[in-house]
Design goal:
three-stranded antiparallel sheet
Length: 186
């Protein structure tokens, strides 16, 4: 199986911007999939979101996503994405995710306001992980000593509220894989 570490890429500026909504980044990845072959299912989407968030933490020391990942049986999951896609099962996703427009109280398509460099960063991450089989993505997230495994094992001995995977644990894991500013993923 391939390495957990994608190839090198250019560094997008982060500039302390607020993290993106996971549903917006999920929609960006869905658009990329639909322009290729139209096939992206829920499980790989969750894992690609995780790797994008992880590499962003490692490279820029700030989160890509505003929501936390939880340790679930098949790897890291962002609950707000799961909540909208749980009925899809293993079928390809055919609709975009939505979020509440607080000014109108209406659910609307979640759209990210991504810079050109952030789009390139996310496109590079997507291009690398999109080719993996879903079971391989699960295996990569279950890596021994990785952030998912640490939370999962701790839960066997102790209470882990929400099974939340700490961003710092994710960041340190990626740095161990070589995800520094000098070794940017693509």
């Amino acid at each position: 199986m391939s390495s957990n570490r994608p190839p090198e890429s250019s560094r997008p500026p982060s500039g302390g911007k607020m993290p993106e909504d996971a549903r917006s980044v999920a929609n960006f990845f869905l658009e990329l999939a639909w322009t290729r072959d139209g096939q992206l299912t829920h499980l790989p989407l969750q894992k690609i979101l995780f790797f994008a968030h992880a590499w962003h933490l490692g490279k820029y020391n700030e989160p890509l996503l505003g929501q936390k990942f939880e340790a679930w049986k098949y790897g890291p999951v962002v609950r707000v994405v799961y909540d909208q896609l749980k009925g899809v099962g293993k079928a390809p996703i055919s609709r975009k995710l939505e979020k509440l427009d607080v000014s109108t109280g209406v659910m609307r398509e979640a759209v990210a306001n991504l810079t050109k460099d952030k789009k390139r960063f996310l496109t590079d991450i997507f291009a690398y992980y999109y080719g993996f089989h879903p079971s391989d993505l699960v295996e990569l997230t279950h890596e021994r000593g990785g952030p998912w495994q640490k939370v999962w094992e701790k839960a066997e001995r102790d209470v882990v509220p929400g099974m939340l995977i700490p961003d710092e644990s994710i960041r340190l894991w990626v740095l161990r894989l070589g995800g520094s500013e000098e070794k940017a993923p693509n």
